[in-house]
Every structure is written in structure tokens, then in C-alpha cells.
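Chain particulars:
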Amino acid sequence: MNPNEADRPLKIDMIRNDAALKQFSTLLDKAFCLPAGSHYLDDFPVWDERCIPSGADLLKIGAFDGDLLVSSVAIRMAELKDLTGGIVPVAIVGAVATDEAWRGRGLASKTVSLALEWAVGKRAALAVLWGSEHSLYGKLGFLLRGKQVRVPLAGFQGLGSVAVQTGWTDALFPLLKARPQGLRLREADLAWVRAHKNVKWFWTGDPGKPNAYAALGKGIDLAGMIHEWGGARKELVQLFAAIEREHPGSELLGSPTLMSEQGILPPESSEPLCLAKVLEPGRAPQDFWLWGLDSA
């Protein structure tokens, strides 16, 4: 980009036509420095037009230099279950990326701010995101919130002869929907949940009705991590032991509360769960900062 280009005004608009959506995918791959053949949307299909359910409450915003997409953000409405069984409307922010040649111009701040305005109009109580640019998001009112802990799988000793199955099966979806905490899933969400290409799924039980499950590597930055898991306690232990044998050094990631409920002793040290911003004071539950939240 030469000096004249740096002064040229950019257009902020929705990302919606086929050409812009293709650029959206390419921009994300470049911004996250993915190796050739790897794609951001393979790990986060919730932002992939081919997997988004019809009528989904979702918005993609971009900064354009003419027809060239140089910065992006995506935001969607979702519902979270709180500890009392209530439902909290939230906005999930993701796919924040800016082409390297256009960084330093505040494009991410502009697009994310517009996305948050949209979320306020949708009556979202909170906005949540996952990202390492804490300074950027801090200026927009996001704070590190929540608590999660890591437990090495090496500490689990699987006993018994329960068969461990691998690979995704749609029969797992009812178990995901039945989770007491985290994202509330609907039948329309099956398409994007099913579309995660780089996750290794492990489960036990009948093929038509699994008893326990664990997902390894669900997210670009979660290699060797299990942060999606649930089901029968005894069979979970066997799953964890089997995964450790196949993938030594793997870790279990989750909320201390959830681990305690499953009879797992969580360590004292913890790390933040996410970045969050209260959009409507008084509507966000006080216990939000204590319970687990799965990434979309």
C-alpha cells in the first residue's frame, strides 16, 4: 500500500454477496496465518454461509477498499443457559481480521463497534468473544471474565472394557443440547456443529444413543485440548484415558464448577474464560462470571 492508498477512504458495509464472502474466507486464512490447505472456517463453521441456518440472527461487517475486503467482523445472537435454568440473550463476536497492509487504521475498532451497536438493538445482555488482542478489546469495553481450569488427562485411569468410538455422529447432538450450561443449541444448529472438520470426537455407548463424549482440538488455538465433553462420569474417565493413550499430553479444559460436579478435582490456578462486555446492565446474571461457556 503506497501513501496515496493509505489516505483513501474506505467503505464500511455488510459482507453478503458471493465475491465478498469468498474474500471473507481468504482474509481470515491470511490474518490467522494458517498453513496452505487449512481454513479458518473449517474450525469455525458457525461463520460459514454454507452452514448457517436459514433465518439466523447474524451480521457480517467489512471495510472495503473499492470491492476489496480489507477488514471483517462477524456477530450473531445466541442464548446461554445460566445456573438457575434461565436463558440469557447474548451476542457472540468472531472472525475479527484485518489485512496486514491495512492495520493500524482502527478498522477493527470501527467494525466491532458497529457490530456491538447491532447487538444492543437486538437486546443482547452481553457480548462475548475470544481473542488475544486484549488492549484493542479493552478500549471497546471488554474485560477478561469467567474462570476455567486445565487438568492433564494423564491423571485419569480408565478401568473396564467400555468400547470407545471415534468420529462425529448426529446421535451426539442431543447430548450437546442437553448440557446444563453454556450455549443453548437448537435443531437448526446441527449443520454448523456437524461441519467442524478438525475436531476429533470420542464417545461411548450405543451408536444411536451415546452415553459420554469428548471433543479434542475444537478450535485453532485448542490443539491438544478438550473443552467440549459430557455424559456419564465412569465412561468419561475411560474416554479421557483412551484419548491420553492416543494423544499424550492432552488436557481437559472447563469450568471448576462443572469439573466438581463430575467428581474431578479442579486445580487452584485458573485462567479467564473469555472477553465480555455488558451491553444492558441488570440483565446479565451475576453468576455469569462463574459458570462455563463453550466457544461457537
